[in-house]
Amino acid sequence: MTTAQKTILITSILAVYSCKNSQSVLTEKKNTQNIVLNNKSDDDLKKIPVLNFGTFHMGLTNDATTTEFDENDRKNQLAVKEIAKKLSEFRPTVIIVERPPSFDNRLQAEYSEYVSNPKMKFKDPSEIELLAYELGRISGTKRIYGVDHKMSYNYNIGSEMTNSIDSTWHNKYYKNPLQYYPDVNIDQSKLNLLEKLKITNQQSYLDFLIEVNAEMLAHVGSEKGFEGADEATKYYQRNIRMYSNLNRIPLNENDRVFIILGASHTAYFKDFIQRSPKFIMVDTFQYLN
């Protein structure tokens, strides 16, 4: 056998070995992947769809910021029903509202009564009676729950103490906070209800609500203190406790959850739900167009 023939033979042997070795590695890797995937059932990977809808409070409220809205005006009520009809296309099996869980029995009873009698009158209806009940009635939703958890905090602390952290930015921001969010800095007095709620649910507006209600307070404090941050933490705590109340509710992968809350809570819930292995966020605007 010549030297050239020996070289060709050795090269061929190495090529075959290399190919077999690569195939062995790929087979081993594939088997490992199969083991990992086989450890996860389809049920484990399913997420519960959530339509997380933010609104201003349509009835009486203690909120510092309010939107002009006559909840007893017939025209306004009809406008809300039209929006409820749009959102009902989501077909929720469960509705979540801004009421403490201690009201659940009363809430369920009143909702069931409304479903049986849609002409039922309410003295001072809120978004719950006007929108959530009607959406549920159209969708055939059976269950409704409250997740609210009341906690107070001092969002005015920046104007009540000597601010040694960053009074310049804090004071400048609160003079006109919406100027920093130009795409939602709109005169809403000229908008109809649907247009207002579309703005309320835009990501930039939800970001604004977290900043204006809490995170700007991180610019407030004494020389060595964290008074503003501590107040902001209370608001975060309220929202994460509300989210805990959501997780107390028995749900499975066959459920579809509609959440209607004051929009600052919606902003926090959106953050929580987007990272959740349990829930999947549905695009709100899919049901508002």
Structure description:
The protein has 289 residues and is an alpha/beta fold. Helix content is 49%, strand content 9%. It has a five-stranded parallel sheet with strand order 3-2-4-1-5, with helices on both faces. Helix 3 packs across helix 5, helix 8 crosses helix 10 and helix 9 crosses helix 10 (263-274). The longest helix has 36 residues, at 3-38. Mean pLDDT is 87; it is low at 13-17.
Structure in a nutshell:
It is built from 10 helices and 5 strands; from the N terminus they run H-H-E-H-E-H-H-E-H-H-H-H-E-H-E. The protein has 289 residues and is of the alpha/beta class. It folds into 2 domains: 3-39; 47-289, no CATH class.
Secondary structure layout:
Layout: H1 3-38, H2 42-45, E1 48-55, H3 74-87, E2 94-97, H4 104-116, H5 127-139, E3 143-146, H6 167-175, H7 193-200, H8 203-213, H9 227-248, E4 257-262, H10 263-274, E5 279-281
Parallel strand pairs: 1-4, 1-5, 2-3, 2-4
Helix pairs in contact: 3-5, 8-10, 9-10
